[in-house]
Amino acid sequence: MKGTLINTGTVVAGSTLGLLAGQLLPSNAQDIALSGIGLVNLALGVKMFLPSKNLILVAACIALGGILGLLLGVQTGLESLSVWAKQVVGGRGQFSEGLLTASILFCVGPMTILGCIQDGLEGRSELLGLKSTLDGVAGFFLAASLGVGVLFSAVFLLVFQGAITLLASRLKWLRDDEQLLNEFTAVGGLMILSIGISLLGLKQMPTANYLPALILVPLAYRVNRLYSNYKTSSLG
After folding, report:
1. Is 0.85 topped by the overall pTM?
2. Over the stretch 119-148, which tens digit does the pLDDT of each residue have?
3. With contact defined as beta carbons under 8 Å apart, do 195 and 205 qualify?
4. What is the C-alpha separation between 227 and 132, in angstroms, rounded?
5. What are phi and psi of 204, to 5 degrees?
6. How many Å apart are CA 90 and CA 48, to the nearest integer?
7. Which residues are CB-contacts of 33 (< 8 A; sequence separation ≥ 6)?
8. Cα-flanking dihedrals φ and ψ of residue 93, to 5°?
9. Which residues contact 76 (CB under 8 A, 6 or more apart)?
10. Angle, CA of 198, 201 and 206, to the nearest 5°
11. pLDDT tens profile 175-199
């Protein structure tokens, strides 16, 4: 858990400094910074999506995950949390956008999975240490533009990465299957693209509703592999 605790601490520190810096920025400067973050999200989402080798699987997971998220009311729940949190802690900015953007950005990349499994199995935190530096810098700029929701993402990061670290021995297969990791990352990339579209004001996307897609990816991947193996053996 050492790597996750360090990562959480850097996000808290970077976000706190970003909140203080954001108070000094005029509204037009915040808008420019927000558009810049939107552009970065678009570029990062495309980069994460490109390694995918099974576009049908990724598309199916996103579509079914979005429907499942809608039925579960994930986006509605996040918006309710945003209203409650603002009433409790106050603050400025776009709470739900900050929470969602930061949480997905910090948690869906391959460095998260590989770093947490390395930490859990080997007690090493080199990957999470590097990720911590990147997340701290990102947290600063996100918090300066999006507000206190970015700081709250540290709680989600702590729970998510902590769970992966504690379950590392059971999740070793995810680290060892490079193609599955690519498909998982591709789905996360599409969600980051969705965030970028929303931040740029092109269309308000219900990004949170797509979160169940991250759970569907390994399930769909395994079903697809079993089907492919069965088809190959039948032809043989």
Report:
1. no
2. 888 777 777 888 888 888 888 888 888 888
3. yes
4. 39
5. -80, 110
6. 34
7. 25, 141, 144, 145
8. 85, -175
9. none
10. 30
11. 778 888 888 889 988 988 988 898 8
